[in-house]
Amino acid sequence: MNDAYEYDVEIYPNLFEVTFIPKTADQKLIDVYKAVDIRCLAIKNGKEGNLEELKEAKTKLLLAVGAKQFVIWIDYTTGKWRNDGPLIMDFFIQHKILTGYNSNNYDKIMLDIFINNYKYLDVKGFNKKESKHITQILYDHSCACVDFGKGYSRLLNFKKYYKRPFTDYDIQKILYLDKTYTSLKQVAICLKWYRIQNLPIAYNCRIREEDIYDICDYNVNDVLITLELERSQKAEIELREDISEEFGIDVRNMSRSSIGKAITTSLYEKFSGIDRKDFMDTKTDRWKIKVSSILSPKLKFQTKILNDLLRTVAQSTIVVGSTKDEDQFKHEFQFGDAVYTMALGGLHSQDKPGLIIADGFSLRDADVSSFYPNGILSYDVYPEHLERNPFRATVGYTKDSRIEAKHLSSKLMKEAKKVLNEYQIAKNQNRVDAEELNTKYHELLAESKRHKIKAEGLKIAINRMYGAFRDINDYLYDPKCTYKVTINLQLCLLMLIEALELKGIKVISANTDGIVCIIKPEQEGDYKTCCDWWQEYNNFELEFTNYEKYLRNDVNNYIAVKEGFQDAYDKLIDKTPEAIAELEDIYIKRKGLFIETIAFNKGYAYPVVPKALNLFLLYNVPYADTIKNHIHSSKEAIYDYCISQKTDAKFNIIYRSIVNGELHDEELQKSNRFYIADVSYCSGTIIKIDKNKPSKINRIVAKYSVRPFNDYVEEDDYHIDFSYYKKECAKILYGKIRKLLVWLRFKVIYLVLCLIINI
């Protein structure tokens, strides 16, 4: 891996700069570099120190890390120039493995253009064939590439004469972040990176010699963020390598969606005997779908409200692609104490915030195993342009093989742990069979991993199939399949909900492929009867989980504690963070805002809040205590109070504050990180001003004072406004009920005062 690097390209009208940092760079050296850079940021933000000495130290550390920076630059006014082109070509004498961020759509193309043009360059970097400097050629292509978007490389006419001396891996594409347009700056905020910086100089400016250092320094920051991202996603990278080996398909540069497509395509090609080139460009387009034509005859209800719903659904017509409200498939209705929504994404109940503790009753989650693939098979769903039997064989094999591989992996892992225990005993007793047991343990471990990889690959494939039915660019595209699956499955799940409610069993939540119920002891028999009937009638299988506690904000944001957690925690002798994390992995189910791990494509909002709620629910730690005390847990804890905000280019972002008694406006970048600050310490606010409508001003986090924190600067006291974060916890726990209670309390006080005055 000595020829594997992270990289990034910067292009200006008179400058081309590229930075490479080895994938194997020593993390200790990188940490020292970061520490020095943090000291630089402190100086820039008013702290004392020698900036030039620190810059020199950073340069030496980059050399020690093995970083390589190449610059091609010309100053048309002074005639000064620098041309590292020969050094770049020397770098590529050996084939390189490069990883970038959005590199598939930009950096890779720019490198291709430079390398292809190199043979025409003179010593200063002028292209003798086009009479242009290479920086101008690259800048013109850069602007055109950004304007064109994905696929710009298809316009280049030199590709058939050009052999690329590197392999490019685009981690943005691998993590599917290109689909959500997640920028590297947003990723950096989620990684709790110490320095969030946009381009130091506008991309269309001519660069002076004294500006080169700042651009190179900025680029190093971006490359280090990319390296940090890749290292944080080590499991995802290794998964692709393992799937490539297991399935014999190179998926190392693919997103999960693309991996699913590759596996499905390979299987359909195998079962059909049809070469992929003969079906990859096919699809079935539709305009209108009569729902009555896709409903299963097995759908039957006992209550008037659900029979009326079935009749309404059957009489509807879906207009594919329409944006009109009347053409959307969406039905809202109340059944029992819950309000439900049927839509393309599945059946969902409209859950109110609250904490439910299983006390005197069972709190049970019933999930349908392989709901969508079983639905595809049960309702005979297949794209009209594909062969029915091979497609069903593809779905059936994927589903069954995944379950088999998953169970076998689990079984082998249990055997491996048993053998490991035997090995440790044999080793302590100096027995001759110790080495044999050790070999057997590693063989079982490897076999378990192989089946786990197979199960994961097939899971990715099967999860993607349903989504591909409505992807117009996919060969599985047939919108009728989408609606046939989702509508039938939602109504099917409603049959179970109806059966349970008619027995007096309260359904408190429904979410796509599962329901949560409150079951009194005397209702256990009825619950089992209903579930057994439903499974047999529909040929589906339910998986049951009992919860001790269930805290939710809504149907997509909750934390559930499985039965037995408290007992297992009390018995845990070694309560190290690792042991507790392993226990939580077994017993705790989180979704949405209760997941402490930040999703790169979901924005970044105060991780201290889910942390406080998790500790409150699991370990009875008052959330107010966590909010107040967490800041003292580490130097990096301030990041957990931060919020991110990315704004459109049409806005100017201003930080407006009072400095020395006067109003002060500071222009900010597009992506910003900030926290809620005590107004007595910081009376600032971030505002968005529409460039086309300057009078239109929006305030970010209205009614609260904020402080930007794009640069990490350590403070003894950050003057955090803890009340804001406590209120966010209370909103999630109690929702509008808390507001109502507060209103009622003041109303009562007001009435009492009125009575006193009248008396």
Your description of this structure?
By secondary structure, the protein is α+β, with helices and mostly antiparallel strands. The chain is 44% helix and 19% strand. The chain is built from 22 helices and 27 strands. Strands 14, 15, 16, 17, 18, 19 and 20 form a 7-stranded antiparallel sheet that branches. Strands 4-3-2-1-5-8 form a 6-stranded mixed sheet, sandwiched between helices. A 4-stranded antiparallel sheet has the order 23-22-25-26, with no helix packed on it. Strand 12 and strand 13 (346-349) form a beta hairpin. The protein is globular. Mean pLDDT is 92; it is low at 737-759.
Question: Layout of SSEs?
Answer:
Elements: E1 4-12, E2 15-22, H1 27-44, H2 51-65, E3 68-74, E4 81-83, H3 85-91, E5 96-100, H4 107-117, E6 126-127, E7 132-133, H5 134-148, E8 166-170, H6 171-174, H7 184-190, H8 212-232, H9 234-247, H10 256-272, E9 288-290, H11 304-315, E10 317-319, E11 330-335, E12 338-343, E13 346-349, E14 354-357, E15 362-368, H12 371-378, H13 388-428, H14 434-468, H15 479-502, E16 506-510, E17 514-519, H16 524-538, E18 542-554, E19 557-562, H17 565-571, H18 577-587, E20 588-591, H19 608-619, H20 623-629, E21 642-646, E22 651-659, E23 662-667, E24 671-676, E25 685-690, E26 697-700, E27 706-708, H21 722-734, H22 736-758
Parallel strand pairs: 1-5, 5-8
Antiparallel strand pairs: 1-2, 2-3, 3-4, 6-7, 9-10, 11-12, 12-13, 14-18, 15-17, 15-18, 16-17, 18-19, 19-20, 21-24, 22-23, 22-25, 24-27, 25-26
